[in-house]
């Protein structure tokens, strides 16, 4: 029964945490018994079971309960198979979604060597616009996961493609995550490549794209500022924040904090 498998998946994370805390008594139980179940359920025929398996996997990764070897040898190969060009449409959409979500939880080497090539392929998926939209919505997170060099070498060309996609929702998603992409690049790339690209979005024929671009204009401009002098920085949750200077802190020591937090355009991307 799918409901039984779904309930089972929901119990995996707390069981895994218990086994981790009791590791001297159960040194290999999680890797021998539970992890194979999670991996198998990622390809279950029932979509609710798959969804429960995906959520369980993300919790396990967030809690750092999955060994690096299991990630590279068991989890990534399954996701690469599910996101292959000839994969079922529903499986492919789910796979690219979980690839984007787990990228921030894995090591940069794992993401760059195992997942980035497939992500770049999926950005150009001509069959499913849903796949391209997921890639566009999470583009900033992928850039942050792989760093400046891989972003400029591999991802920026794909970003240009998505920003000129025939589907306006794709261009809108790119406008919303523009600040996060810009933050990962060098000042020269921001000036020579991203600035003209942003102008094209702010002049787009679709008003929804233009509106998203105008909302991202301030955050995009902020990426040109020197963090040490401007006090602008990106928090781990993807928000742009302003750190008050030491002089401001001293002068307002008896006043409530005046910190201002501006949401990153891709912080609420779906």
From TrEMBL:
Q: Which UniProt keywords apply?
A: Repeat
**PROSITE patterns from the entry?**
HEAT_REPEAT
Q: Name one GO molecular function term.
A: protein phosphatase regulator activity
One family name in Pfam for this protein = HEAT
Sequence ranges of the HEAT repeats: 115-154
The keyword Transferase is annotated on this UniProt entry: no
Annotated region (Disordered) at 247-270
Entry's Gene Ontology cellular component terms:
cytoplasm
Name of this protein: PP4R1 phosphatase
Q: Which domain of life is it from?
A: Eukaryota
Q: Which gene encodes it?
A: Ppp4r1_0
